Amino acid sequence: MTSHLAIDLDRSSPVPLYFQVAEQIAEAIKNGDLAPGARLDNEILLADRLGLSRPTVRQAIQYLVDKGLLVRKRGVGTQVVHGQVKRSVELTSLYDDLRRAGQEPATQVLALEPRPADEEIAAILGVETGTHVIYLERVRFAAGEPLAIMHNWLPVGLAPLTPEGLHNRGLYELLRSAGVRMRVANQRVGARAASAHEAKLLEERRGAPLLTMVRTTYDDQGRAVEHGSHVYRASHYSLEVTLIER
Question: What φ, ψ does residue 2 adopt, rounded to 5°?
Fold first, then answer.
């Protein structure tokens, strides 16, 4: 509850009061002082405790809702969603990263079927155009919230993939279990606005910012074993990169 937080306001500062409140609540979420699922005091109580107007407090809460840190639920109030998922850029699957971070990964499989490869996918996977490849579409959840829409194309016969298996395990884990030795990947990260379909699946507004990731993974023989094109909620997800001087 925000009643337990020490929120210090500098009324002489040029920084708006709503932003001071929002930043201190955001910091408490980041530090774990406000855990996922924690309920905030209602706006009247919080405004009264801080000596602020209700519109100022409402603006602070809405700022955090827009950032994806808080959610308003009818009959429940305002709750902490969770901190942003931070992922190191390594040859790992999102499922494995979420599991290691204690984010309770879950998967909804929307499609798992053979499809003829178009010219672009065929060139990436090193097969003839029109050759059947495995197409996979999933929605990945973290701590009960939709986080990413994932599209993958794989050569036929690499691993026995089923919706049940993909509900419980990550794609890379299933490939490794089948003896696929993934060694290196080319990856491109970008950003764009969410389409109406993507916004609906991710519970975002249409046009919300999404991070995009396109990755092709190769085995120890240099063969392309997986191509993925994924989108992530920018409010819930970021990438961390370590830079080394050479």
Answer: -70, -15
Quick one: pLDDT band at residue 88, thresholds 50, 70, 90? Answer: very low
Q: How many other C-beta atoms lie within 10 A of the C-beta of residue 192?
A: 12
CA dist., res. 85 & res. 142, Å (int) = 8
The predicted-structure confidence for 137-175, as pLDDT tens digits, reads as follows 999 988 788 989 999 999 999 999 999 999 888 899 999
**Whole-angstrom distance, CA of residue 204 vs CA of residue 233:** 8
Can you point out the beta strands (E) in the chain?
70-73, 77-80, 85-88, 105-116, 132-142, 145-155, 182-193, 209-219, 224-233, 237-240
Separation CA 98–CA 113 (nearest Å): 26
Give the separation between CA 7 and CA 20, rounded to whole angstroms. Answer: 9
Among the residue ranges 39-53, 70-84, 115-129, the one predicted with the least confidence is 70-84
Count of positions (residues) in the chain = 246
Q: Is 99 helix (H, G, I), strand (E, B) or coil?
A: helix
The pTM assigned to this predicted structure is 0.61
Extract the tokens encoding 91: 């040859």
- Residue 125 host element (H or E): helix 119-125
Residue 195 scores a pLDDT above 90: yes
| Statement: residue 127 has pLDDT above 70 | yes
* Owner of token pair 């599209």: 151
Among the listed residues 151, 223, 213, the one whose alpha carbon sits nearest the alpha carbon of residue 187: 213
User: Residue 221: which of 182, 187, 186 has the closest Cα?
Assistant: 182
Answer for the pair 63, 71: CB distance below 8 angstroms, yes or no: no
Q: Which residue, among 237, 240, 239, 241, has the nearest Cα to 105 in the 3D structure?
A: 237
Characterise 158 by phi-psi region: left (phi > 0), alpha (psi -120 to 50), beta (else).
alpha
